[in-house]
UniProtKB/TrEMBL annotation, chain B:
The lineage of its organism: Bacteria, Bacillati, Actinomycetota, Actinomycetes, Jiangellales. Keywords: ATP-binding, Cell membrane, Membrane, Nucleotide-binding, Transmembrane, Transmembrane helix, Transport. Residues 562-581, 634-675 are annotated as: Disordered. Residues 654-667 have a biased composition (Basic and acidic residues). The chain crosses the membrane at residues 12-36, 77-103, 110-134, 196-219, 239-264. NCBIfam families: oligo_HPY. It is a multi-pass membrane protein; Peripheral membrane protein. This is ATP-binding cassette domain-containing protein. GO terms for molecular function: ATP binding; ATP hydrolysis activity.
From TrEMBL, chain C:
One of its GO terms (biological process) is peptide transport. This is ABC transporter ATP-binding protein. One of its GO terms (molecular function) is ATP binding. Pfam families: ABC_tran, oligo_HPY. Residues 250-280 are annotated as: Disordered. The keyword Transmembrane helix does not apply. InterPro entries: AAA+_ATPase, ABC_transp_ATP-bind, ABC_transporter-like_ATP-bd, ABC_transporter-like_CS, Oligopep_ABC_C, P-loop_NTPase. Residues 4-239 form the ABC transporter domain. It comes from Jiangella rhizosphaerae. Belongs to the ABC transporter superfamily. SUPFAM superfamilies: P-loop containing nucleoside triphosphate hydrolases. Keywords: ATP-binding, Nucleotide-binding, Transport.
């Protein structure tokens, strides 16, 4: 510990991991509490009003719902640590097995969309910033800002419906449902990525424009550096912080955004499962999937914070 | 937000369209269920799941109900639910957001932490979570969406409150004894109202879309009730048969959502700072011939004649913060420019160095900088020609360095680009230059980031950056204003030494006439974008322009008589947009008369001294120059009987000699220099 | 008007690595009816001291008293009023200046009485009472600073603290605000702590001058005495550095000695012994025999030295030849 005390990085990571632990604890508690916050008897709700009382009671017993709440909580946490997320109330399949099957489809969709967002948005945003700096090209600026505002405001599931109609139904270029070969990724990824990409490009542009107004860019110009060098060396690195922050938020949003897109494209991921489970009141499955989404989001936040600390020489890690 | 701003938001085409759409939607929400409510429920067994027909333009659903009517009627329910969710979100958000300001420190921090934790989770995840708890259905969905949006709204309120709470006027109210609740009600909330209104509007759009999403997933509105999302979900199943059944509610949702979002954004644009518009430069102005100065010095590094810098005015037309400045600086000369903030000093400097902001329009009868006439040339050409001939030192050494680049590399960049030096050679020169300006441990410092430097050291590094090559002109714009007096003295001394060593001309800009008096040979006084007087420092006591004289008299120094009131200048400097006709100083001048309605030109009042005034003063001013009991000349007495400590040897410990600037300094590193 | 005194006032910010003592055991008395000027470079803790007095930052030690009675509650502290540096930030942009001033009036009053009082205050600071209904955005910096003074006076304070109130103003306006401060002080017999980094400005309004360095008062005494016969080398250095007409930069002053540090050390990590010793022209860096400076803190014996100077050698410089 004392050897660590001097190292700001160790201190930072320790603090940051501590925060992750607290967040995870809150997440687990909420997931656990979800079943107990539901008004009425969740088992009765899941099995329907016609289910015989002794079946309901047997199921309650099996789920441990008849134990005191403290005991239930301890059991829940203990089984989480052993990788046991419970058993589906309707199908009887272990939840971890279901998630194991469904997770890859969701993750590949989210990651593919994220990569597309980053590759498209950063160059676009920077280019627009350079083109429209200092009030140049009002037309291009207005076109970009209003188009991107409009498109970014269309939610992914509506975009998905539109894409299905145009490219699936009318043109028949891409499959409209299911996950198979690469072509089946095109529409879901576009539906998921388009809005965030435009949002991100807008933010990159605004940030880059703000940096261009900074004193040190004036200094760079006073050094008579070529414009490309000014933009790449002095402007972009300083717009990176907010780009990263927003990128993290977008990634979290896209992970969960898959729920809607999956339901449009009948994508066999967790999103399909969670919706059908909510409707079927299959609470253990819902709990498990909420935990996975939540943990993924917290992980993304952690990675972003570490990247921010690495990227910014003034970052808080030195101040503590 | 004033009425004018609302109007401006509506004048913006996007805002106007959005507002118009919202009005239409509101009307529909009221009348559609009354007019068509029953018809939309009518099942037509003869027309189940039809495509578009003349009777049912958008087709029918599985029970044969008319889809167009159902979309229209669903307006009320869709909007109503969305607004309800928004209301929940805003109320919960504002409560959570204001709580930290009302609660004590510790409880406040807890609330903030909780909100921060919740914000990390995307809204949809929260909405799903709440939907499970509150149950599937409209009521559950309203609560879920409202509460899911609350954390981010709370965070918004918190950041805004924190920003406002840090302002001096809130501190002042607290000092005046204003209580917590009144503070929130009177000072905090009203000052964050604008962003809140904007975001609530945007939030309404988001809620509408989110609602449609939940209904689409089957988690929202349950049959027999229907909203757009539900219609959309039903339509999607049959998109191959009747695309309109899915597209119509989809379009309705998008249009309504966009109307809210875009209205919010156009309000935000009006409220926020608007970008400066670039406009075509004005047609060539009538030459201010009377003011032009013809005779240019042969050995001048800087000649500016009738230099004007214009910006597009908000109400159309142009304003000229720099309005016909003439300035000549000879090789090796130090010239000071003084004037109050807003008098155009910095803009003059930037325009001369070709660094004026993009939206500025720079003209001059004649402009020559280091033998280059930059006006009318392409940027690249100016860069090429000026290269490293003009060095700049800016006011705020903190913000003038790139925070994410090591200092050494920022210096080295100059020679790497302009002299195509290799990395190591350039860095070696940077270290050498840092040593030259007395930055301690230059090798180590070169590898540090700017924030690891102190203010004075940054300013030294800035000067070192100018010395990476051999500048002919150094323009220092308020280089010491952000520094303490002791550090100021050292930076000024450094500038003086640099000037002596390199022979570069120095233009020192300052609001402090005493600072300029210490370093410079000649002083140029600016007022309202014009030069009003130009004189050698030694003649400051014989300043002729009433403004120069007032400036000198109104600033207390260590010799000012404490029993007499300070001289003051009534009024305030004019805004460049409405500079008075004639002499700009006339409204504040005690000698103004009818003659002053005509703009005075700079005219000689003594050898080397020119003033722009119809009634130049001739009486000498009492500047109590050398009789200052406590001025620097008093050093001996101040250090007491013991006498001052041995003065440092001239030159040593000031500027380490800039080794012959024409040679590569890296070649004789470590040698004691040629002094 | 009553006497304000700081006794061992200490303010610490932050914890661990980032901890810093911005105000470190300050003893300072502002006698009733007089103006004490506080000078020092930025970051020396002047503003923090003023904020601690009015309760905007919590103190971590010591006592602040008004006529000997410790200030504890916010009601006590209302007797001290602070005027801020930036006149553009210190008035609520959404309140008319009349409302801003009225808000500070103590007790409940009838509407008419409030209006009359606001008008009286505006007149007192040289503004047209009809201005009461205008918003701050219509006022110049100097006018706003007058409003800020009026608001401070509205609270019927025993002591006014003015923190760099002329630093953000144009030089041509600064003079009129300084005149106003002096007039008000004489007219109302105000007790005042006047903070500025500018010695000439402080000198113009103050009866007593206190010099602050790295969180401590290193010298305090009657204005004339401190300026003409300073006891602490830091005060001398400040005076030497003040720009003045007719004094060339290349006349070296003792602080130009290259062996000395050019700038103040980090407040996070103040040097041992005398905090000024790495910059002191008569300290151990120029006179190696003065090892005491680097080892022993001169603060403890300060009260017994002339001008309460925090310097071991303050008395060595006693005899100053007559001018
Ligand atoms: N809220 C705060 N948190 C941490 N440090 C602070 C805070 N306020 C002031 N400081 C630090 O306290 C020191 C004294 O600051 P200040 O009182 O503003 O000095 P001055 O008014 O003399 O310029 C500085 O180092 C400053 O950075
Ligand atoms: S021209 Fe007239 S108004 Fe202007 S400064 Fe001279 S006397 Fe005053
Ligand atoms: S104690 Fe020593 S170092 Fe400190 S001020 Fe006095 S002489 Fe200088
Ligand atoms: Mg301060």
């Amino acid at each position: 510990m004392s050897a660590w005390a001097g190292n700001p990085w160790a201190g930072f990571l320790l603090r940051r991991l501590g925060r992750l632990a607290v967040s995870l604890a809150v997440l687990v508690t909420l997931a656990f509490g979800m079943i107990h916050l539901i008004p009425g008897d969740p088992v009765r709700a899941a099995l329907g009003v016609t289910a015989p009382p002794d079946l309901v009671d047997a199921r309650r017993e099996a789920l441990g719902l008849n134990d005191p709440i403290g005991v239930q909580y301890v059991d829940y946490v203990r089984s989480l640590f052993s990788g046991d997320l419970g058993i589906s109330m309707t199908s009887g399949v272990p939840v971890s097995e279901t998630i194991g099957q469904r997770l890859p489809a969701t993750a590949s969709l989210a990651v593919a969309a994220f990569v597309v967002v980053m590759l498209a948005a950063i160059p676009l945003g920077l280019a627009m910033a350079v083109l429209t700096r200092g009030g140049r090209r009002r037309g291009a600026e207005l076109g970009f800002t209003s188009t991107s505002a409009v498109v970014a405001a269309i939610p992914e599931f509506l975009l998905a419906v539109g894409l299905v109609f145009v490219f699936g139904v009318t043109l028949g270029w891409f499959p409209v449902a299911g996950r198979s070969h690469a072509a089946s990724y095109v529409l879901p990824v576009v539906a998921l990525a388009l809005g965030p990409a435009l949002l991100m490009a807008r933010i990159v542009r605004v940030e880059a424009l703000a940096v261009m107004d900074e004193d040190f860019v004036r200094t760079a110009r006073a050094k008579r550096l070529p414009p490309l060098r000014v933009y790449l060396r002095h402007v972009f690195p300083n717009a990176l912080t907010s780009t990263l922050t927003i990128g993290g938020l977008l990634l979290s949003g896209m992970i969960v955004g898959t729920v809607l897109v999956e339901n449009v494209f009948a994508w066999p991921g967790m999103g399909m499962t969670i919706v059908s489970s909510i409707l079927a009141k299959d609470y253990p499955v819902v709990q498990g999937i909420v935990l996975v989404y939540g943990a993924a989001v917290l992980l993304v936040n952690l990675v972003v914070d570490v990247l921010l600390a690495v990227a910014d020489p003034r970052s808080t890690i030195r101040e503590g | 937000m004033g009425r004018d701003q609302w109007r401006a938001a509506l004048r913006n085409p996007v805002g106007a369209v959005a507002a118009g759409l919202l009005v239409v939607l509101a009307i529909l929400a009221v009348v559609a269920p009354i007019l068509w409510g029953d018809a939309a429920e009518e099942t037509d067994p003869a027309a189940l799941s039809q495509g578009s027909t003349s009777e049912h333009p958008l087709g029918t659903d599985a029970l044969g109900r008319d889809i167009m009517l159902r979309v229209l009627v669903a307006t009320r329910y869709s909007l109503g639910l969305a607004l309800l969710a928004t209301a929940i979100c805003v109320v919960a958000g504002v409560l959570l957001g204001v709580l930290p300001a009302v609660l004590g420190r510790r409880a406040g921090r807890l609330v903030t932490a909780a909100v921060n934790l919740a914000v990390a989770f995307p809204g949809l995840l929260l909405a799903l979570f709440f939907a499970v708890i509150f149950g599937v259905g409209a009521r559950g969905a309203v609560l879920a969406i409202g509460l899911a949006g609350a954390p981010s709204f709370a965070r918004l309120v918190q950041t805004n409150v924190a920003a406002v709470a840090g302002r001096d006027y809130v501190a002042a109210a607290r000092v005046a004894g204003v209580g917590r609740f009144r503070l929130v009600a009177r000072h905090l909330l009203p000052n964050i109202g604008e962003p809140l209104v904007v975001n609530a509007t945007v939030m309404a759009g988001t809620a509408l879309l989110a609602f449609a999403g939940l209904s689409f997933l089957g988690l929202g509105v349950q049959p027999p009730a229907y909203d757009w999302g539900r219609l959309l979900g039903e339509g999607l199943d049959r998109i191959y048969i009747n695309p309109a059944a899915a597209l119509a509610p989809g379009v309705a949702v998008v249009v309504a959502g966009l109307a809210f979002t875009l209205l919010g954004e156009s309000i935000a644009q009006v409220v926020g700072v608007r970008a400066v518009r670039r406009r075509r430069p004005p047609a060539a102005d009538e030459p201010a011939a009377a003011l032009a100065r013809a005779a240019a010095e042969p050995d001048a590094v800087l000649v500016a004649d009738d230099l004007r810098v214009g910006f597009p005015a908000p109400g159309g037309g142009w304003t000229h913060p720099v309005d016909g400045v003439g300035l000549t600086v000879r090789r090796g000369e130090t010239v000071g420019i003084v004037g109050e903030s807003g008098s155009g000093k910095s803009l003059t400097a930037l325009a001369v160095a070709q660094l004026a902001p993009d939206s500025a329009h720079v003209t001059a009868q004649r402009l020559e900088v280091a033998g280059v006439a930059p006006l009318g040339r392409a940027d690249a050409e100016v860069r090429e020609l000026l290269g490293t001939k003009v060095a700049m030192v800016f006011q705020d050494p903190m913000t003038s360095f790139n925070p994410s680049m090591r200092v050494g590399r920022q210096l080295a960049e100059v020679t790497r680009v302009h002299e195509r030096q290799g990395r190591r050679a350039a860095l070696a020169r940077a270290v050498d230059r840092l040593r030259t300006v007395r930055v301690p441990a230059p090798e180590r410092r070169a590898h540090q980031y700017p924030h690891e430097f102190s203010g004075g050291m940054r300013q030294r590094a800035m000067i070192a950056m100018g010395l990476m090559s051999t500048p002919e002109l150094i323009i220092a714009d308020e280089p010491t204003t952000a520094l303490d007096v002791t550090v100021q003295r050292q930076v000024l001394r450094l500038l003086e030494d640099v000037q002596a060593e390199t022979g570069a001309a120095v233009v020192l800009i300052s609001h402090d006439i005493a600072v300029v008096g210490q370093l410079c040979e000649r002083v140029v006084v600016m007022y309202a974008g014009r030069v009003v007087e130009e004189l050698p420092v030694g003649r400051l006591g014989a300043a002729a322009h009433p403004y120069t004289r007032a400036l000198l008299a109104s600033v207390p120094d260590l010799a000012t008589d404490r029993d007499r009131p300070l001289a003051t200048i009534p009024g305030r400097p004019p805004d460049p947009a409405d500079r008075p006709e004639g002499c700009a100083f006339a409204p504040r001048c005690e000698f103004a008369d009818d003659a002053c309605r005509v703009r005075p030109g700079l005219a000689a009042v003594a050898p080397d001294q020119r003033a722009a005034c119809w009634h130049p003063r001739t009486q000498p001013l009492d500047l109590a120059l050398d009789a200052v009991p406590g001025g620097s000349c008093d050093t001996d007495r101040r250090w007491g009987a013991e006498g001052p400590p041995e003065p440092s040897v001239q030159g040593v410990g000031r500027l380490e000699r800039v080794r012959d600037p024409l040679h590569d300094p890296t070649s004789d590193r470590g040698a004691g220099g040629q002094a | 008007m009553r006497e304000l005194s700081f006794e061992g006032t200490t303010v610490r910010f932050g914890t661990g690595r980032s901890a810093l003592t911005a105000v470190d055991g300050v003893d300072l008395t502002v006698p009733a009816g007089s103006v004490v000027g506080l000078v020092g470079e930025s970051g020396s803790g002047k503003s923090t001291l003023a904020k601690a007095a009015v309760g905007l930052v919590p103190t971590t030690g010591g006592e602040i008293r008004l006529d000997g009675a410790p200030l504890r509650t916010s009601r006590d502290r209302r007797k001290l009023q602070l005027v801020f540096q930036d006149p553009h930030a210190s008035l609520d942009p959404r309140m008319t200046i009349g409302e801003s001033i009225a808000e500070a009036l103590p007790g409940r009053r009838r509407r008419a009485a409030r209006t009359a009082e606001v008008a009286r205050l505006l007149e007192l600071v040289g503004l047209d009472p009809a201005r009461a209904r205008s918003l701050p955005s219509g006022l110049s910096g100097g006018q706003r600073q007058r409003v800020a003074l009026a608001r401070a006076l509205a609270a019927e304070p025993e002591v006014v603290l003015a923190d760099e109130i002329t630093s953000a103003l144009d030089v041509s306006v600064q003079g009129s605000v300084l005149n106003l401060v002096r007039d008000l002080q004489r007219q109302l017999g105000l007790t005042m702590l006047f903070i500025s980094h500018n010695l000439s400005v402080v000198r113009y309004v103050s009866d007593v001058i206190a010099v602050m360095y790295l969180g401590r008062i290193v010298e305090a005494g009657p204005a004339d005495a401190v300026l003409s016969a300073p006891r602490h080398p830091y005060t001398r250095t400040l005076l030497d550095a003040a720009p003045a007409f007719g004094v060339a930069l290349d006349d070296p002053v003792p602080a130009d000695d290259p062996r000395l540090d050019a700038e103040a050390p980090s407040p996070h990590d103040p040097p041992p012994g005398c905090r000024f010793h790495r910059r002191c022209p008569i300290g151990p860096l120029t006179r190696p025999e003065r090892t005491i400076c680097a080892e022993t803190d001169p603060q403890p014996g300060a009260a017994d030295r002339p001008h309460r100077a925090a310097c071991h050698f303050a008395t060595d410089l006693m005899e100053v030849p007559a001018p």
